Amino acid sequence: MIPAPAFLSNPERFMAFSRWAAPLFGGLAVVLALAGLWLGFAAPEDYQQGDTVRIMFIHVPAAWMSMFVYACLGTASFLSLVFRHALADAAAQAAAPLGAAFTALALITGSLWGRPMWGAWWVWDARMTSVLVLFLFYVAYMALRAALDDEAKAARAGAILALVGVVNLPIVKFSVDWWNSLHQGASVFRADGPTVADVFLYPLLLMALAYMSAFGSLWLVRIRGEVWRRRAEALALRAARA
Amino acid sequence: MFGMLDLDASPYGAFVWPAFAITALVFAGMIAGALAHARHWRARTEALRKTAEAAEAARRPPVQDVTP
User: Which residue of A20, A168, A201, B6 has the lowest C-beta tally within 10 Å?
Assistant: First the structure.
């Protein structure tokens, strides 16, 4: 069996851990975002993009998070489906609305950058289309969970759907290599190092860390909410039987 | 490397500022949603727990005074 972190398999330990970890990650996110915004607005205009380059500091981290959160959703769904971890299912359910929000942000801010730079709010480019499909997977996951009253059936059906959606992640990542795309190829995570100038790279990485910390904090809070909800439903069921 | 803040986004202000405003709104929504969800279910759990404890106490037979 895959050794899960202790807090993942024990709700009591998770609640004790998340009680201090959630505000810690939240505070870290605020500090990192302030530093990233400061550096982002102190950076010079890009010689081609002008001031729209600043949209990249909020767009690119949102796009990275859309994929990272889906990877978390897929992993939690796998653990829930195979090892029946109740907390893993709560983690999957808690990740979905956050992932949908990050994906929507990536699409909206990308559109606001695309209009002045490409001359269009939207094009059926491989990267944009695959990210739209990713957003639809998040929406479908939440709709499916909401549509089924039986918690166990909803968890199982949701986990299967989430795992099917994992197939889309490499398509999003490599769409710019596999098809002709308006999007550029990877410019930060490359074997030969980033090709982005330091004045743009540092604020971009700080904002990415801020988004990551914010997700960590909000995910923990949402999982705590899920644990409370399940406890409330168990108590209500017990009261109804008594 | 980094000087004063450049807050003049012209001629792209109509795209840059809405992007930042929407990002702020989405984050505010995520924070409010997560906190409201957790607080609502915590309060509901505690209320149900109190009700269950009160019902359990009412079911228990009264303790008889056996002191001589």
Answer: A20
User: Is the ipTM beyond the 0.90 threshold?
Assistant: yes
- The pTM score is 0.92
Q: CB distance B38–A225 less than 8 Å?
A: yes
For residues B10 and A51, the answer to whether their CB atoms sit within 8 Å is yes
Would you call B5 an interface residue with chain A, using a CB distance cutoff of 8 Å? yes
The nearest CA of chain A is from the CA of B38 a distance in Å of 4
Would you tell me the crossing angle of helices A56-83 and A11-42 to the nearest 10 degrees? 160
| Chunked mean pLDDT (size 10), chain A, 242 residues | 57 91 98 97 89 95 98 96 90 97 98 95 94 98 95 95 97 91 82 86 97 98 96 90 76
**Alpha carbon distance A175, A168 (integer Å):** 10
CB atoms B12 and A235 under 8 Å: no
Contacts of A232 in chain B (CB under 8 A): 41, 44-45, 48
